[in-house]
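Comment thread on ticket #2218

A.B. wrote:
> Attaching the input chain for the structure job we discussed in standup.
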Amino acid sequence: MNIKSSLPDFFEAFQNIVYEADTKNSMEERKRYLAEKGDIFRQGLLALKESKNESKNLVALGVMLKIVEQFDMNSSVSFFETVPSRELCKEFDSHSDEINEKVIEITFVRAGKLFEKAKTGQSTKKYLDRHRFIETAIRLVWELFPADASTDWPYQKIKKTVLCEFIARCYLLRSRLALPKGSDIPEKKIEAICKAWDWLKDAGSETDDLKIEIALEKDRWEKNLSENWINEIIDKFFKNKNNTFDYSNHIHRAAYDKGRQSGILQDDFDNEILKLSADNNSPNDPFFFLHQAKASFRKKTKDLPDRLEKAVNALKGVPLSYHLWDDTVDLIKKAKEREANGWDGAAVKAWEICMQEEARLKLGIQIRWYWSRQADLYELAFMAAIHKKDPVLAAKTADSLKSRPAVKLVQAENNLEKNDRKQLEKFREIETNFAAGNFHTRLEDAKKWHTDSFLNIPDIQTIPLGWTAVHFYISLNDTGYAVIINADGKNEIEKIKIKLIEETWNAYKDWKVALQKAGDKYLKDTSESLKKLCKACGKMLKPVLKKANTNKIIFIPHGFLHLVPIHAAMMNDNDPLFNTRTCLFLPAWSLAPDTSSLNNNDKAILLTNWTNKTDLEKFIYHEKWTNGKKTECTHSDYLSLFSFSNDDPAALLAFYCHGQGDFMNPYRSALKMHKGPLTHQAIVQETDRKALLGTKVILTACESDFVSGKKDIADEHLSIASAFLQKGASEVCGTLFKCSPDIAGDIIAGSLDDSNLALYETVHNVQRNWIKEKPDELYKAAAFRVMGFPVNNEEV
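C.D. wrote:
> Ran it. Output below, let me know if you need it in another format.
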């Protein structure tokens, strides 16, 4: 063996092993890898030791020993078992500067390779591996700085400014890897961008490209930052004669756009930006068409509609967490405020692309993270439909934001099944690729995510004869709209005055206070506040119902209206709406059940957990119940009946128990069964998809149709009732608030006596008879409402 000829190979192999060891995801994995490569380490070290007479080999040996020592400190495997002799140590001392410089050189290369892997995602199994890579890169370089900052810089071949700039770039990437979750901005994102700015102060000029890039990022995410701060940075950049404005550089264009927006820049480069060729700039620059559209908007050019369309089309494949969405929507908003041509088409197209992007993430449960940031976009799309005088489009856009859960990502993660968790990890990896700047890679990956189920929603105009659908929408400025879709095609949009929305909202709040004070035993004390709410609701509905040309209404509420007993609205002479009109509800049109084939068998299932057995006597002995155990029923009893496929599902499923909503985490809303709750999560994830098809479900449990009642959050309807609707039930009777056992028993008994009636007809019959006999007990009748869709065989 020719030792001299193999020495460079040993040293190169050693470096490659070190570079690869850095990428291992855990200490145990790193130990195993180094143990596998131990022979190469030892051979290289011994070969260098034997040929130490050459200066470069001595330096290489010293470098290897220093780096191996770092690994030995954290490893159970020793890679150099022979202690260096005193003579060898003296030789190392005489070459210490060279050894240290080479260690620094290799360390900087190690950090650089980790930075690239963090940016590109190479050698990562999970998206969190990127965070570890970038943090390791920062640590490696940070440890090169002398402990005493006042001492002279100890290295000759690498400047302090270079290391400072590298750490600044690392923290900039670290900030970008901290993805925003909905409208929430992670603290780690702000912390990292602030550290990037601090490190850059020692890296050189205050006006270079990296400085501007970090400043723009800091301005975007640090909401408490003064506007003057970013203006001063931009002003310095453009006044510095050493800087040349590069129209093709998206960072320069972003700084220019910010300066024009704030009014500190008078220079007009818009014409030059508009002349740029898309062929040379757009593939790796997702902001290219947006910057051209902004230039067109400022110049008020005639081709603004085309420019807006191109900017919107550039959103295809771009994750909703990326700020290109925010900037594009902001431009469309400004175009709308100016009443510029093309804003409405751009808004609708952006909404369609947003829906496609949402559909890429198919989980067993939904996560608000991926759509809640786009509240302004949904609003713009709805207003575009109003501007176009298109009721069908208005109903579609309004419906697209309904029935969305407000659960936080961390809560959703706790409720995800294994396959869902893997899919979320994969999706995050694609998003992180884009955030890190790998635009082309991200767009290619996005194409692999199919959206076959995109907008698999019943036609908005598919309404049975004799029915009218009323889609509510409450705008961000509290103006209300009711989109009225009639079966005969005569559709209209009714604008509801802000005053009427406010009156209903205030009455609702007063009623909720009364409910809280009354407790379980004094519901009667809420009677007056409920009547005031129903009257306020009646005033709001009056102009709407004038345009509904039928007496049968499907209401699709929005916002807090999900919790208002619209079916009990008092129109005239204190007469609740359900006395004169048939009322059905849907959380969203997209959740309308298929009623083409209903279960007409005599099979019925009863599950109860109730202390007072007397309350059960109205119905518990009925011959239609097919299950043996009907009392003290448990979560397991439900699963034993509905967790497997059934080609002939029961026509009726009735629960008689307590219930409790949870608007902080709707997945924990539950029916209180014996020995433990039956949660929304369990119903959705453990009910077989065929076990409830076409089944009527009665939930005589308090708050089984309870959702968040806040006025200022994105629309959502995630309740126990909606869970059963999602699993294929044809109709679901739920409760908006605390219900009374007596009327609940009448509803179950009525459903057994005439199983041919639709559930909403049965409930209305019970409500009408109850109010007729006991007109002061509206608080009992109004608690119940039915979600579902009109049955096809119904006479109209």
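A.B. wrote:
> Thanks. Noting for the ticket: The two ends are 97 Å apart (CA to CA).
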